[in-house]
Specification:
Length: 259
């Protein structure tokens, strides 16, 4: 199932795509487990409209985005950093959320704003102290994300909050793909259609189930919360006027501009 959040006639809905139609709903879908099988369903379907009539918004509204730094071996090496023994976590605020197609605002405080292509896990159920072997029961699906980073501000304060938290620094989308095995997906970044990052989620140091186990020991993950799983090597700067795309196999392509 391909889940979207969209604007239709001045109202924002969730929904899912069926051929060239969208079935609109008021809420994120629910997850139910029956005989070890996961079922995703919408409680209140309100209308069926043509896909061409809706405008895509970020596919969920997280209360928090838990992000993993240095989760690809090649990216850690690129910055001359040691492979971490446990996940390095930071949080992006909900106010940094950006919809597909919308512009990333280049902050006046920064002189270097980088793209970071990431596989994003979207939670579908409240998760606390979840064992890795049951982790997928709590996942709604996966989307593309760009962990936009003011690289020049990152070393300044020892914490990453400033560098990672500007408004518009968390583009997500274009939709949530529910039927996907996240263990070996090709991931690419294009800057003005020129290929920049290329890797596979099989190179993750900490995989999706172990991240959910670790993070849910620390904090409750709410439905709609996201885990940004980290970026591979090849990160680099964007300039005003650039067009940046994150493409992940089995999901699609997230496009944004820089202003
Ligand atoms: Mg990142």
């Amino acid at each position: 199932m391909r889940i979207i959040r969209c604007l239709y006639e001045d109202t924002i809905y969730f929904g899912y795509i069926e051929d060239d139609l969208v079935i609109l709903s008021k809420d994120l879908p629910r997850i139910e487990i029956h005989n070890h099988e996961k079922k995703v369903w919408f409680e209140r379907e309100v209308a069926k409209v043509p896909f061409a009539k809706v405008f895509l918004e970020a596919p969920c509204v997280p209360t928090k985005a838990v992000c993993v730094g240095l989760n690809y071996r090649d990216h850690a090496e690129e910055f001359g950093l040691k492979i971490p023994s446990s996940p390095v976590l930071f949080i992006k605020p909900s106010t940094s959320l950006l919809s597909p197609g919308k512009p990333i605002h280049y902050p006046t405080l920064s002189r270097q704003v980088d793209y970071e292509a990431e596989l994003v896990v979207v939670m579908g159920k409240s998760a606390k102290n979840v064992d890795a072997k049951h982790a997928f029961d709590y996942v709604l699906g996966y989307t593309c994300g760009n962990d936009v980073t003011a690289r020049d501000l990152q070393p300044k304060d020892g914490q990453w909050t400033v560098a990672k938290s500007f408004d518009t620094f968390m583009p997500l989308g274009p939709w949530i793909e529910t039927d996907l095995d996240p263990s070996s997906l090709k991931l690419r970044t294009y800057l003005n259609d020129e290929p920049k990052q290329f890797s596979s989620t099989s190179n993750l140091i900490f995989d999706v189930p172990s991240l959910i186990e670790y993070i849910s020991q620390i904090m409750t993950l709410n439905p709609g919360d996201v885990i940004m799983t980290g970026t591979p090597s090849g990160v680099g700067p964007m300039q005003k006027g650039d067009h940046v795309s994150v493409e992940i196999e089995g999901i699609g392509r997230l496009d944004n501009t820089v202003e």
